[in-house]
Amino acid sequence: MIHHDANLVHALGWAVLHFLWQGLLIGLGAAALLRGFSQRTAQARYAIACGALAASLLVFVVTFLVLANATQSGVETAIALPLAMAATVSTTATGGQGFLNYVAFGWALGVGAMLIRFGRHWLWSHQLKTQQISAPEEMWLRTFEQLKADLRVSPTVQLLRSGLAQTPMVVGWFAPVVLVPASAFTSLTPEQLRSILAHELAHIRRHDHWVNMCQGIIEIVLFFHPATWWLTQQMQIEREYCCDETSVQTAGDPRVLAEALAQLELLRISSPSQALAANDGSLMDRITRILDKRVNTKNTTRNTMKTKTLGTLTAAALVIGGILIAVADDKPKPLPAKEKNEHKREHQNEHKREHQNEHKREHQNEHKREHQDEHKRDR
Question: How far apart are CA 161 and CA 172, in angstroms?
Answer without folding.
Answer: 15
